[in-house]
């Protein structure tokens, strides 16, 4: 990995404005999933250091919230400009530790920056309101105030965007943050922290604690100083964090597991559906919570769609992310590879057929994207989130059947469908049990729209107008005894 600015590769935690090493014990090695080589090492922070980060955030809360919205948002604007100016280096760091192709990593950096830009503007518009009083001598004013110290526990699959999507609104609202990035991909977070320092954020407003999740997470959830926790990850871990947060009654946002359906109706534009399915399913080698995990295709167009999708998948090339010819990088670790293999083996044993495979490498943590035809509900890939480049095709006959199959999951994050029938578009959009629905597109994640799920896919929303509301309390101010008559 070659960087134009080597100062962005920080191998320390950021606590109270200082870059610090672990108090004791060995550092954690971070490995390139494409080669297994060590990218660098970061501290495995303990409970004492995590509490120090929380204390640093709390110590700066009063002064940070007292700044004007314009002053806070000016800092966000400077941070945004620095992220874009160093986008190539951040992308190189991301590819080295996460594996995605450089072009895709660069796209994520720009996507991550868009949240900083959006909330730099949105933070200037936070305002309260007045309520008509039932009494002549009373006035009721509602203030919107920052929640307090906010923690963000972020995943490895989008190591830049998941941080800015959580932290930009928190900072704009007046909340200092404590960030716990994935131990698999900490360097992207640390590069963002370095740039935030250069932008001029006061010491203690942004803290980054690296290390294994159990001790750090438990310290965050137990602390009464942390008033908000935002987490992106598995439903299992999210449920555990919710349980731990109950003792201190924290506000929480949980973006958890998904099992997204993608429905192709008989009247769909198949070329559009294939293009969108490719974008949804195979982005980041299928390692996204909103990727199309189950593809339902009307019998009337099943063969035609399978042929077109197969041609597109066959054109993909699996290679290291820094290879210019790469369209698909490695999976994050051996466990991810094993899960995809287990789903394929189970599907083939239950009557599935391999319809197409990508070209390129299939060794180590590289898995060639593939399509499984004749998928059935009893296969593991139907009920479990594969989180890899495996696209199963299911058949259906009626609209009602497709909706029933799509909703037959405890998850409800995203869904996609393709039709030219306007009446059907509204029927299906309203019937699908997900927090986000996409019609004739494979893209649903953008800074100006709310992002989040229902059922066991989580609580709360990120992005859009609701994104900053997650970090604001509504305080009702009742003013009585006013002498308002001359």
TrEMBL record:
PROSITE patterns: ALDEHYDE_DEHYDR_CYS, ALDEHYDE_DEHYDR_GLU. It is an enzyme of class 1 (oxidoreductase). Its EC number is 1.2.1.-. Keywords: Oxidoreductase. The active site is at 255. SUPFAM superfamilies: ALDH-like (SSF53720). Residues 19-476 form the Aldehyde dehydrogenase domain. It comes from the Bacteria. GO terms for molecular function: oxidoreductase activity. Belongs to the aldehyde dehydrogenase family. This is Succinate-semialdehyde dehydrogenase. It comes from Novosphingobium ovatum.
């Amino acid at each position: 990995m070659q960087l134009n600015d080597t100062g962005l590769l920080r191998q320390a935690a950021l606590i109270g404005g200082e870059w610090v090493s672990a108090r004791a014990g060995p550092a954690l090695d971070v490995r390139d999933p494409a080669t297994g080589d060590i990218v660098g090492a970061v501290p495995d922070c303990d409970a004492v250091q995590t509490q120090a980060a929380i204390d640093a955030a709390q110590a700066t809360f009063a002064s940070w919230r007292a700044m004007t919205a314009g002053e806070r948002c000016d800092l966000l604007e400077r941070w945004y400009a620095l992220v874009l100016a160093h986008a190539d280096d951040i992308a190189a760091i991301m590819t080295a530790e996460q594996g995605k192709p450089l072009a895709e990593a660069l796209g994520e950096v720009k996507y991550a920056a868009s949240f900083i830009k959006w909330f730099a503007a949105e933070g200037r518009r936070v305002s309260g309101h007045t309520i008509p009083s039932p009494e002549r001598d009373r006035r009721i004013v509602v203030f919107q105030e920052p929640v307090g110290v906010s923690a963000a526990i972020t995943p490895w699959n989008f190591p830049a965007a998941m941080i800015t999507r959580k932290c930009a609104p928190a900072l704009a609202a007046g909340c200092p943050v404590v960030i716990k990035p994935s131990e698999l991909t900490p360097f992207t977070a640390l590069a963002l922290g370095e740039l935030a320092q250069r932008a001029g954020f006061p010491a203690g407003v942004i803290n980054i604690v690296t290390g294994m999740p159990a001790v750090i997470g438990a310290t965050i959830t137990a602390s009464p100083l942390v008033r908000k926790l935002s987490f992106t990850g598995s439903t299992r871990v999210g449920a555990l964090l919710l349980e731990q947060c109950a003792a201190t009654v924290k506000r929480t946002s949980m973006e958890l597991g998904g099992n997204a359906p993608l429905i192709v109706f008989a009247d769909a534009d198949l070329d559009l559906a294939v293009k969108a399915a490719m974008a949804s399913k195979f982005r980041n080698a299928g390692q996204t919570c909103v990727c199309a995990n189950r593809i339902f295709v009307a019998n009337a167009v099943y063969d035609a769609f399978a042929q077109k999708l197969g041609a597109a998948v066959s054109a993909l090339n699996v290679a290291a992310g820094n290879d210019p010819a790469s369209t698909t990088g490695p999976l994050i670790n051996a466990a991810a590879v094993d899960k995809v293999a287990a789903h394929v083996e189970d599907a083939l044993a239950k009557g599935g057929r391999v319809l197409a495979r990508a070209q390129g490498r299939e060794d180590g943590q590289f898995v060639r994207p593939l399509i499984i035809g004749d998928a059935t509900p009893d296969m593991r890939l139907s009920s479990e989130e594969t989180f890899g480049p495996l696209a199963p095709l299911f058949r259906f006959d009626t609209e009602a059947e497709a909706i029933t199959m799509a909703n037959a999951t405890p998850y409800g994050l995203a869904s996609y469908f393709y039709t030219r029938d306007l009446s059907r578009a509204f029927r299906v959009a309203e019937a699908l049990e997900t927090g986000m629905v996409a019609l004739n597109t494979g893209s649903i994640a953008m800074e100006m729209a709310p992002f989040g799920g229902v059922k066991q896919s989580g609580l709360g929303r990120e992005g859009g107008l609701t994104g900053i509301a997650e970090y604001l309390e509504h305080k009702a101010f009742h003013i009585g005894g006013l002498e308002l008559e001359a």
